[in-house]
Design a protein that fits this description.
The chain is mainly beta. Helix content is 0%, strand content 64%. It is built from no helices and 11 strands. The N and C termini lie far apart (38 Å).
């Protein structure tokens, strides 16, 4: 199972960016799809999460500005970031929690991380 994140970049404060994360492999289900971020000198924090049933959770700092969504048929999830602030600058990581997949005929469940994508918000 591999996760490929894309969509980071440089944006001015108040602008918008969209991130996407695509999971590949012989996947049956992904229980929770998450976005985390880590700013320089800070711990990694949960930005947003969406369950297989569509229930969403957001960090307090992004509530009302960011929207997470998923396309189960494509094993892909998205993060739409609006009204960006300089403090949103960080490396954003996608994470798949409770992935059910098949390898060599056997079923497994595990968690996986994508590579980070840098989001820079200039003031």
């Amino acid at each position: 199972v591999q996760l490929q994140a894309s969509g980071g970049g440089l944006v001015q404060a108040g602008g918008s960016l969209g991130l996407s994360c695509a999971a590949s492999g012989n996947i049956f289900n992904i229980n929770v799809m998450n976005w985390y971020r880590q700013a320089p000198g800070k711990e990694r924090e949960l930005v947003a999460a969406v369950t297989s049933g569509g229930v969403t959770t957001y960090g307090d700092s992004v509530m009302g500005r960011f929207t997470i969504s998923r396309d189960n048929s494509k094993n892909t999830w998205y993060l739409q970031m609006n009204k960006l602030k300089p403090e949103d600058t960080a490396v954003y990581y996608c994470n798949a929690e409770g992935v059910t997949y098949v390898r060599r005929g056997l079923h497994y469940t595990g968690d996986f991380w994508g590579q980070g994508t840098l989001v820079t918000v200039s003031s």
